[in-house]
Amino acid sequence: MAAMWKNALLLCATAILARAQIYNFEASTVAESKSLIMSYVFFVYSKEEAGLPGNATIMFKNLTVTSSASDRHDSTLKDYEGVQLSVMRYEDFWAQVKPERMCSTAEDISGGLAKKLDHLIINRPTGSSFDDVHVYRHQMNFGASANQEKTITKSGVYILVMSNCGNFDRATISGSVVVKNPHGYLPANEFVKIKFFMGLGGFYLLLFAVWLALILVWKDELLDFHKCILAVIVIGLLECIFCYVFLLDWNSDGMRKQLLFGIAVLLSVVRTTTSYVMVLLACLGWGVTRAELDSGTSCRIILLSFSYIVLNFIREIVISFRHTHSLPMYFVMLCLFPVSLMNGGIFYWVFSALSSLIENLSSSGQSEKLAKFQKLWWILVFAIIFAVVTLLVQVFLFSKNAAHYWREQWLVTDLAPHAVFVFVLVAMMVLWKPAEGSSRLAYMQQIGGDEEGAAEGPGAADGSAWADEVVIEDEDNKDDSFWAGSKNQAPPAVIGGKADEPRGLD
To answer: Reduced to 3 states, what is the DSSP secondary structure of residue 496?
Structure first.
């Protein structure tokens, strides 16, 4: 009984993670005597809500129960009917099944609560059938294989329950339970993502066309940063294509192709990592206030990127397969915690670097660059606020009954994160779009020409922003260089002439 309550507490989390509509029993151990197990979660659209021809169906296929006891053979258990599989709406579960009285007795039969001994009691109105209360039951019999198909008439989150109300539990179950929606095998909460990724892919394609056109038109004004933005757009487009193909393929036959799934997850992780690195490089002033990063910083970024891709990929795989593998909760949390910790570290590094860059640009009077990075600051602040709000909404919704929000859960698990990403990407594109004079933003070693590009003629070098930048970058190296000496306005050395001794060397 304690195991049942534990499963109940974890059901919402399981519902969030459920991804498939086929559950296979592979010599699975039956529930203990006088207990039940919540095995799986299905998301179902009825024919009316789906608005498509065909019904939602549940199929019990090739299900067999076999004794694993050496002293009890299947032939001696032909009359044992304690093991049953039931698919019922989670929203109605606690009203239909009472933990304190869930297995039928002779008293329950006489009282009309059950028709047979040692069956799971389903509380329902007098005279109604199981189908009337959206409970779809399959009786398991030893030594027999049976197939059964039923029509599901109401949308909702359904749970697969294995009950054993008899006194024998040394047995295993094989076979499968398959739920098919009017649209196909894809879970109802995943079906909307087909259109979502198709639309998002079209938007990425538009961004790609626009950005590529700008790059070709202003190819002489390009920065390395422009190429980074193009790479992020391409990765986002490929992710949408693979997610779309993966969902369509899964919907057609109910089999999730692991190769397509792995590629889609990897592209999602690479897209996220690349975008973080791109923002970090911008905040470090790469290509704008410095020609290249020092070797230590470059090594840290490479190590961070590799670690983030590996850990985030593991996180996505663990979350996806949590429902089909018995993974300990501490192991799941161990996979989630490092990624969350790294996200916090990346955000701190980004804002710390951006604050230092803005301060340096302000002190050196580089107003054009300063304006861009100040806008980037507000873009990132808005994105962080939106992401935090989304997280709070997600936590709030997930703390509620899964049966009430399953239709909308994709809004906070898929739409909101992609919306934040696309917002930052588009903002970066607008902020750093290639145009006439874009090359003025690039780091330049030579002295001459003011920040606005208007310095021409013999006196233009005086007061140059680039000269100021060189001084700032060499500020930590206050040596006896020619430039440092010239700032002290020392008198020139004179040799020969009317003086008997050299002058200006004291």
So the answer is: coil
- Separation between Cα atoms, residue 25 and residue 174, nearest integer Å: 5
CA distance 466 to 463: 9
* 8 Å CB contact between 230 and 274: no
Q: Which residue from 229, 254, 203 is spatially nearest to 415, judged by alpha carbons?
A: 203
Of residues 453, 454, 452, 435, the one with CA closest to residue 221 = 435
Closest listed residue to residue 65, CA positions, set 168, 136, 137: 168
Q: DSSP secondary structure string, 421-481?
A: HHHHHHHHHHHT---TTGGGGS---S--S-TTS---STTTTTT-HHHHHHHHHTTT---S-
Q: Chain centroid to CA 129: how far? A: 42
Full DSSP string of 114-142: -SSTT-B-----TT--TGGGTEEEEE--B
CA separation (Å) from 368 to 48, 288, 435, 443?
Answer: 59, 11, 14, 13
d(CA 386, CA 409): 17
Round to whole Å and give the CA distance between 276 and 354: 13
For 50, the token pair is 């789906």
SS3 of 241-272: HHHHHHHHHHHHHCCCCHHHHHHHHHHHHHHH
pTM of the model: 0.74
Q: pLDDT, tens digit, for every residue of 67-98?
A: 999 888 998 998 899 999 999 999 899 899 98
* Domain edges within the chain: 2-180, 188-441
What's the pLDDT tens digit per position in 408-441? Answer: 878 877 888 899 899 989 998 998 888 877 766 6
Nearest to 453 by CA among 472, 434, 439, 433: 439
The vertex-10 CA angle with 135 and 82, nearest 5°, equals: 40
- Tell me the one-letter amino acid at 284: L
- Options 3.30.70, 3.40.50, 1.20.1070, 2.60.120; which CATH number does 188-441 get? 1.20.1070
Phi and psi, residue 128, nearest 5°: -90, 150
Burial of 240 (0-12, 13-18, 19+ CB in 10 A): buried
Q: How far apart are the first and last CA of the chain?
A: 97
pLDDT tens for 279-326 read 888 888 877 677 778 888 889 999 988 988 888 888 777 766 554 444
Distance of CA 297 to the CA centre of its chain: 27
